[in-house]
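User: We ran a pulldown and think these components assemble together. Before we commit to crystallization trials, I'd like a predicted model of the whole complex to look at. Sequences follow.
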Amino acid sequence: MKITAISYWRLDLLLSRPYRLSGGRLLFERLDSTILRLETDAGLSGWGEACPWGETYLPAHGPGVRAALQTLAPSVLGQDPRSPEALCRTMDAALPGHLYAKSAVDVAAWDILGQFAGLPLWRLFGGVSPEPVALNSSIATGPADEMIERIAEARAHGYRTHSAKLGGADASLDLARIEAIDAALRPGESVTYDVNRAWTPATALQVLNATASRAWIEQPCETLDECRQVAAKVAQPVLLDECLHTYADHLAAWRTDACLGAKVKPNRVGGLTKAKKIIDFAMSVGWRLHIEDVGGTALADTAAIHLASATPEPFRMASWLAHAHLADDPMDGQGARNNSGFAAPPDAPGLGVRPDQARLGPPAGEFRL
Amino acid sequence: MKIARVEVYHASLPYVGEAYQLSGGRAYRSFDATIVRVRTECGLEGWGESTPFGPTYIPAHARGVRAGLEEIAPAVIGLDPRKTDRVYDAMDKALAGHAHVKTPVDVACWDVFGKSAGMAVCDLLGGRIDGPVALISSIPAADPQEMRENVAEHRARGFRAHSVKIGADENAGGPALDAERVAASLADRRSGEFFLADANGGLTPEQMLRLDAALPRDLDIVFEAPCASLAETARLRSRLRRPILLDELAQSDADIALIIQQDLADGVGLKISKQGGLTRARAQLSMCRAAGLCVSVQDTVGSDLAFAALLHLAQATPRAMLRGALDPRSIVRSPVAEAPGARLSDGGAVAPDRPGLGVQVNLTALGAPIAAYGEAA
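Assistant: Here's a predicted model for the assembly, 746 residues in total across the polymer chains.
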């Protein structure tokens, strides 16, 4: 089987409301997503999505996805998509880095493999049933009372785990947020405080050592080494996200005791093939994981939920759904959706989401053998 | 003073020979250049270039440069180009990472700054240190005898430093072939010459240790970019006596800090577009100086425009820590730009003594811009 065509579409995704991260430094109002289709000479086609979260959350952006796909296309055409790992190696040889573009190709290859095998991705990833995954909400930075209101809204939608964003210029406000939010949680609920790199190590120590909260603290500082310094000196468990890209980064984090968990996002690490290896390593060293994607429609979310569902419970924490933040639903109800605070992966072979091509319109780019 | 318009041009720079070979079977025949023109309201303009060394040297490719400029160019319109750190802040707010995208805008701003102050860029970067900058040649991996002849040819043209590419996989001859390449390249060595053996991250610690063992103990050579990762470099470092210079693994300020903190290298290869422009390269040069590291001031590849930028930085670099500047004209020939006065003579080149970069850009050769941001021309 050969890949005979690569087509991609640009989707402009408006957020239902503007979103602030990292103490309000970073503001997001719309996302520039790229939807990709691989066609084969066997009549099967697969879909993937690469949707960076803006241009400043990670070193990734929409135009960069499409530029990378143009450079990668000649090496991808003619390859057998049923061997996603070999396809990853081929892409890495053609263009190093650019994991945020490669993820779309990798997901589409797995979609084809699943359809060919007649199996849903969750089964190919080792799952025994399409187990529903607990969902976590995303609570943007703001005054503590506003954040508590947003948690209440999320609770009404079934969420029991919340990712509360911190990282303001005033550390005392972050401390107040932690105390207020911890106190407002209901029994059975949990929270992760996601700083998105905003603190210096000193600020992290001042805040975290002043609170009795034992919630997960995510990406307190910019670099792996700074986070390591913090992890060594606080009682809270540290989770890492933005500073972990390659497998080697995860090894370095483990070797230096920089964290006890990670967020594994296909778009950040380069696709499902690479994410699976990282998850296997993480389980072997006892880390806990949030498996979700960086952004996008239900297409991107569903790929991540397949992987999350197949990951055994002790290691798996809640997953965030990016599409819950969108004003529109380009995937028309397909894929993994919030059902009382849980999302289950589809049972159809492959990914289980097929965009309506009439609705997508003509592709922005197309490469054929 | 305000930036009114940013124009993006594209040029193809042909390799001077057949094809340039790097480790891992990579081979290039031409290089895809992106050239940026920053035009101010008062009429001053500056130029910068970003020409990745193909798409496989580091995570940078020419189409990515132009895609990234879509985010960055609009963000600098209206800013004062002389306030180079503030322009950089604005670029960082428009796009995270992507140093090779920010480079041409940053360099163009230094060009404008120099022209507005009536000073050469090297003087803005701390001051010209008189005397030529020794140039380092780039000797592609090939048959040992060919490499010896290539070194001799560059020596005859005035090069006093040579970067010899190695990285033979086992099928091709492995460490034994690389040892022969190094020995041949150094066979006619003159006093005062400096040599790098550059694997471009293509070898493992095991292969490097075998290569090191196969070379005469007293051979004076620095290994550049032996392995693909910092972790492998650290493992090698603990068992290798010869000095190491890191290039591909030294991209950001944080990379330099980590290299110093973990004592992973004795020197850094600075490439203007890899580091993210003159603003970043200069900051990292200061870190290297503080830590006692040597530097080679280079770029990936490029026209005379890229050469001028790196030459100005090299001209202001204390010679005791400088291990040559790369002359990209030994790799490509292009009519798009000329740096009058930056001629190779008497063992090196001298940065132009005119305001800004001192480069004349050939607008006819460049053609029309492929993209433009800001006011209409």
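Residues 160 and 186 of chain A are 9 Å apart (CA to CA). That may be worth checking against your pulldown data before setting up trials.

User: Thanks, that helps.
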